[in-house]
Amino acid sequence: MAIEHFDVLIVGAGISGIGAGYHLQANCPGKSYAILEGRARIGGTWDLFRYPGIRSDSDMYTLGYSFRPWTEAKAIADGPAILNYLDETARDHGIDRHIRFGHKVRHASWSTADARWTVDVEIDGQSARFTCGFLFMCSGYYNYAAGYTPDFAGRADFKGRIVHPQLWTDDIDYSGKHVVVIGSGATAVTLVPEMAKRAAHVTMLQRSPTYIVSRPAEDAIANGLRRVLPSKLAYGITRWKNVLLGMFFFRMARRKPAKVKAKLIALAKAELPGGYDVATHLTPRYNPWDQRVCLVPDGDLFASIREGKSSIVTDTIDRFTETGVKLASGEQIEADLIVTATGLDMQLLGGMTLDVDGAAVEPSQCLSYKAMMLSGVPNFATSFGYTNASWTLKADLTCEYVCRLLNHMDRTGTRQCTPTLDDPSVTDEDFLDFSSGYVQRARAKLPRQGSKLPWKVHQNYARDLMMLRYGKVDDGTMRFSNPAPQPAARTTGRLTPEPA
């Protein structure tokens, strides 16, 4: 079996992987690379999710790439528009020519003697193998095969259809039907107003409320700037405007949670008819930004409720029945279709396993270096976005840092870089300070963060910008070494025989 070698292998052709390809081409033009994508096309999340109304829960001026302006009128964009943006980016920069579709990465093994990764891949049920000098994981953070669904009692009794939004198919017909959407997160608040346009009625059934904020679908300032300024300049100004506003809001939520909570609830109350039970349905038990705040463009969910097309019920489920859902209160909600918008199944590294010189790597036993690398794991990075801002803000910075790291190794003639934890004063903490269910369910799978830099996870774009774009690469924690090349070392970009 011949093995193909690249300087860098990127795993995943979603928003992170396409960005990684661009940054490598722009900042490390001499490096060969390939993108291994397990699915049949690019897009990741934006190709996988097909449920009604699928849209971003961040503005496109920050969810978009730093290097490619978002020029559509809508700031809160729908899934097809985002997928088109990714398609155009990959095509215009020639990134699409580097993508290998249907390549599911199963295992990666690091050899210090060779200073390279050997990556085992499944292609149409057959095994294949690649090698690389640096492995960059851009595979997202959840299981693409299935979402999370609790084990509801009586599920088999229900005579209608039950579907998780992650597995939505085109044959699902909800016109004129009564629909129950279980959940209160970004997916649920997207589904409800969109399905209510054709359904007889849609009920959002939630165990507990979420903060829901109306935001204009179009950014008037951005659209105005674009009329008088070059698109790239207008985009850059809008991007920083939205970054700073987001950071200000998050900081206020942390410093004055009670005040911010009261304001958010007051804004929601103003969108609804007088006497609406805001205390029950729209007053969360947690503080703002302990979980993500849900955006509804132009208040579409609130409008749907005002018009009587949808409603919110706050209760726990006793069981499914033949005709709907029985609640703990004894109430019965009739349904023809039940949509379980109950969250994601968090999965690191796309389910891939790792070993370093034959020793298995458990990410949960590692500390996260600069929120992108694992302690003791050489020449390896993973793209993991922000919980309190757009994913791409952090993905862009991570790509820039990986390029700085590769260029530093070229300048110094080193072949291996390893984040090394040898400071006994560093204690470990949860990787994410976030109370969302999908995060809490995955705590045991996630790496840990440390009590101080560079092991601390900021969730702060400005601080990460200074650290990743301008901070020292050779910081004393990242250890550089130069294993002697072995006789069987492969030539970059060529097919070579597998060693015996």
Automatic annotation (TrEMBL):
UniProt source species: Sphingomonas colocasiae
The highest taxon in the source lineage is Bacteria
Checking InterPro entries in the record gives: FAD-binding_MO (IPR051820), FAD/NAD-bd_sf (IPR036188), Flavin_mOase-like (IPR020946)
Keyword Cell membrane attached: no
Required co-factor(s) are: FAD
State the name under which the record lists this protein.
Answer: NAD(P)/FAD-dependent oxidoreductase
Alphabetized UniProt keyword annotations: FAD, Flavoprotein, Monooxygenase, Oxidoreductase
Q: Which family does it belong to?
A: Belongs to the FAD-binding monooxygenase family.
Q: Where is this region: Disordered?
A: 479-500
**Residues making up the signal peptide according to the UniProt record:** none
